Amino acid sequence: MGDRKPLHVSHVQATIRCSKKKHGLQLRTRSGGHDFEGVSYISESESPFVIIDLANLRSVQVDVENEVAWVQSGAIMGELYYEIAQKSGTLAFPGALCHGVAFGRYISGGGYGLLFRKYGLAADNVIDAEFTDANGRILKQKTNGGRSVLGYSWRRNYRVSFLVATPSFKTKSDYVKKPIPEIGFQGIWSQLFEPEARGATLNFVAYGGKMDEIPESAVAFPHRKGNLYKISYKIRWREEDNVNSERYIAWMRRFYSYMKSFVSKSPREAYVNYRDLDIGKNNEDGYTTYAQMSSWGRKYFKNNFDRLVKIKTKIDPENFFRHEQSISPYFG
Ligand SMILES: Cc1cc2nc3c(=O)[nH]c(=O)nc-3n(C[C@H](O)[C@H](O)[C@H](O)COP(=O)(O)OP(=O)(O)OC[C@H]3O[C@@H](n4cnc5c(N)ncnc54)[C@H](O)[C@@H]3O)c2cc1C
């Protein structure tokens, strides 16, 4: 196992080229390592892979005069809030509730927080981005027609390692468009009193406001007008209780199934930053059909899914960057 933390993007470019061309190794990219299914650092496939870990690429440059900031992917939200507060008493960024979430991935999945009903998602406030593609080239992307106040850039740091992890929670999400009737809540209460549910939490996040004004196609995140709230379901158990993990996960699946009639339908929408591999996975060989991918792609991205498949087909036709639930190029 090797472990390196370069500070410059050129090292990252070299790693991508080396992994792909010289060693034929897969890559996983990790910013903060908070992925709910751990796909940034674990794999269901037995093939070894390289982790590009962005933990050291975390600079935050705040330009108060122009009201923009350049943030590297590995910076956590708390670092951005702190740097802005150091320089200004009036500027802010509509970021995550949790200060420990890393910037690059939080934002690419949408990114909500306490200010999102007034200013939109974090992703709605991005004006520019830099990417490294599967050939190790830097691509630049201007976004959002300059209507936002802060920008960000993605750079990649890397670390080479092979890891095993034992998650002790399971998460799912839903969007609610009509009030849940009282009888629905009675069913919720009774299930929350079941023995497996002692570590269960339900979070209701109100939508509306600015979120109703931004078109569904503005960024990849599509859950806009018409949502009353999002629910996130989480069940936790102690590590020493991992032998019983299937019981807790089964409870979560039963509960999710119960909620079906009270939440969005066709598709049953879900938040991509609350990744849930139950709703679908890629084939291990890296070739997943459009129809297979649609099972989770439409839930996360609705009609924006087609656009994402087109972009992936253009930018990464060999599907070099992939994980259990990544978007594949169009393979038919
Ligand atoms: C305690 C906690 C609080 C949270 N609070 C919020 C919240 O308030 N609002 C909200 O919207 N979400 C919240 N989330 C969800 C969070 O946004 C997601 O879990 C997000 O994926 C975490 O980003 P990360 O960089 O830490 O994850 P990672 O595990 O590092 O990455 C997640 C995924 O993104 C990929 N990835 C990471 N960096 C890059 C990159 N630079 N380029 C390409 N791919 C990349 C990884 O390969 C992986 O597939 C929270 C999560 C936790 C655990």
TrEMBL record:
Domain FAD-binding PCMH-type: 1-174
Domain of life of the native organism: Eukaryota
Keyword Oxidoreductase set for record: yes
Claim: Hydrolase is one of the keywords in the record: no
Cofactor(s) needed by this chain: FAD
Gene3D superfamilies: 3.30.465.10, 3.40.462.20, Uridine Diphospho-n-acetylenolpyruvylglucosamine Reductase, domain 2
GO molecular function, one term: FAD binding
The name this protein goes by in its record: FAD-binding PCMH-type domain-containing protein
Source organism (scientific name): Gossypium trilobum
